[in-house]
Amino acid sequence: MRVVVAKTQKEIIDNMLIRGYVFVIEQEIDWEIEYDGLDDQCVLFTAYIKDKPVGAARLYKNKVGRVATLKEYRKQGIATLLMSEIESYAKENNIPYLKLHAQLYVKDFYEHLNYIVKGEIFQEAEIDHVLMVKKMQNE
Predict the structure, then answer these.
(1) 128 DSSP β-pair partners
(2) In what order do the strands lie in the sheet containing 52-60?
(3) How far apart are CA 44 and CA 33, in angstroms?
(4) How many CB atoms lie under 10 A from the CB of residue 66?
(5) Fewest beta carbons less than 10 Å away: which of 2, 5, 123, 136?
(6) CATH architecture label of 2-135
């Protein structure tokens, strides 16, 4: 299993396909919300098992988003590896803290990675979310 910063056309398309499967098809989020036109301003992370794309995420400034794993590959550490790569990138690029809007059902996952809930539950794409933050320590 590996995570790459998507630079080639294939890696970028793989990232967008994973997000399309998870968010647009599975969660029925409107494609105009998912593909918001910001990807070209983001760092895209794509996870592979062998050569098969299985996970995706993006970093927009200091906001982690679009963390997705294909259904049949969940609970295998892919999202954890994606988050680890994003945090490494943040540290290397002197990003002082990361924030994310976690869907409520995965809040515990992010808490396990030491993200802290800030504020109340809110709706995004008609799904309950919570703002979470984590300070990046430059070791």
Answers:
(1) 123
(2) 2-5, 43-49, 52-60, 63-69, 97-103, 127-135, 116-124
(3) 17
(4) 24
(5) 123
(6) 3-Layer(aba) Sandwich (3.40)
Q: 4 pairs with which residues across the strands?
A: 46
Share of the chain above pLDDT 70, in %: 99
Closest-CA residue to 17 (of 51, 50, 46, 38): 46
pLDDT for position 80 = 98
**What's the rounded Cα separation, in Å, for the pair 2 and 50?**
8
- Per residue in 72-115, pLDDT (tens digit) is 999 999 999 999 999 999 999 999 999 999 999 999 999 999 99
Cβ neighbours, 10 Å, residue 106: 15
Q: How many CB atoms lie within 10 A of CB 127?
A: 15
| Backbone φ, ψ for residue 129 (5° rounding) | -135, 165
Break the chain into its structural domains and give their ranges.
Answer: 2-135
pTM of the model: 0.94
